Amino acid sequence: MTKRYPDETLNHWADIYVARNVRGHGISLEAFLAYPHQMLDRVERIEAREFPEPKLHRCERRMEHSMRQRGAILIQKLWHGSRKRNRADAPLPSRR
User: Fold this and answer.
1) DSSP assignment of the chain
2) Under a CB-based contact definition with an 8 Å cutoff, are residues 5 and 24 in contact?
3) In the chain, what is the straight-line distance between the N-terminal and C-terminal CA atoms, in Å?
4) Total number of domains in the chain
5) Residue 11 has pLDDT above 70, yes or no
6) How far is 36 from 22, CA to CA, in rounded Å?
7) Sign for the pseudo-dihedral over CA of 45, 47, 51, 54
């Protein structure tokens, strides 16, 4: 026997069902409506398995880390100024 759902609930979950392409993972609308949160978790786990994060080589991780550090240093210098005052920062002597 099919369970009856209010129109608002049915429209809400049916829109999510179509937007997330849950049917493409072999889940029927009735099964999705019975346990929508569990079915969405299942779809997310399947998608995560299909497209794993690429693993970086040690050299690439080291380079990425050093680039992040350099970027942080540059941002700090931009916002707070350089630590040392150099000749370019010194005021010019006035000639009267």
Assistant:
1) -PPP--HHHHHHHHHHHHHTT-GGGT--HHHHHHSHHHHHHHHHHHHHHHSPPPPPPHHHHHHHHHHHHHHHHHHHHHHH--SS--TTTSPPPP--
2) no
3) 99
4) 1
5) yes
6) 10
7) negative
**Closest by alpha carbon to 42, among 59, 55, 28, 27?**
27
- The amino acid at residue 47 is E
In a domain? residue 25: yes
pTM: 0.49
Phi first, then psi, for residue 37 (nearest 5°) are -70, -40
Inform me whether the pLDDT recorded for 29 exceeds 60. yes
Domain contains 1: no
- Asked if residue 73 is part of any domain, the answer here is no
Range of the domain at 17: 7-50
Is 30 within the bounds of a domain? yes
Digit-coded pLDDT (tens) for 70-96:
988 888 887 776 555 555 666 666 776
